[in-house]
């Protein structure tokens, strides 16, 4: 068992990481109570969802660390929750602008810059798209599709895994793991692209709401939960991370990823409490709204 296979430093490390997870959960609960009491109901649930991302990932990583056989389910649970949080972050930016109608009024003659990361950061020749109900619909659809299709693909992966057809580290073209991973990766890029387009437009207007630190925390969760874990798993698959009996290379890579995530998500939970707990001023009225970005030209009525 796990407890008998750990030496004294290992048990101490596991105890410290478990304590950090419990503290992160308590910090989030206290923050959720504060948000429920102080934040208007229109934004309450969205902000609670976004703040829950780090403690949920920390909790699933802690469970996977203690119960190695549950790693498949804990990773998939964190993945589903993270897909929903990406959509919630886009909706939060719209809500902070006063809602969709107010956003359209504030940027009545503005345009979205779609040459942004992670999909089109090098395509500077792409045209700038007018801000209309239709373009807002496509941006919301870009994140909503990820929140819908990723849980479906994860459920399909679990079904194939229980039947023995899905092997996480088998990236052979004949296996389903490669194709499902590529499809999820494409959906992730489109969702992050939609959030990046919206952030690039509202970052000046929402500067008084500290949207830049909030976006930075969101980006850290994306990089650490997705990119960092993927890189460690690739290193483990290629035996770059050596085995340490009784742990194989893949098992050790999974342990390293989970332990890093627990520490990182603990720090993000604490910082998120500071950033989201501040009292922000309301946006200026439309007559005194923030100026448009360079290149947004007023159109004649």
TrEMBL record:
Q: Give coiled-coil spans as residue ranges.
A: none
Cross-referenced SMART domains:
Solute_trans_a
> Which PANTHER family does the entry link to?
ORGANIC SOLUTE TRANSPORTER-RELATED
Query: Which parts pass through the membrane?
Result: 12-34, 46-67, 73-94, 137-161, 176-195
Q: Does the keyword Transmembrane apply?
A: yes
Q: Which Pfam families match?
A: Solute_trans_a
What's in the GO CC field?
membrane
Note the InterPro entries from the entry. Ostalpha/TMEM184C
Q: Which organism is it from?
A: Dicrurus megarhynchus
Q: What is this protein called?
A: OSTA protein
Q: According to Swiss-Prot or TrEMBL, what is its membrane topology?
A: Multi-pass membrane protein
Query: Where does the record say this protein resides?
Result: Membrane
Keywords assigned by UniProt? Answer: Membrane, Transmembrane, Transmembrane helix
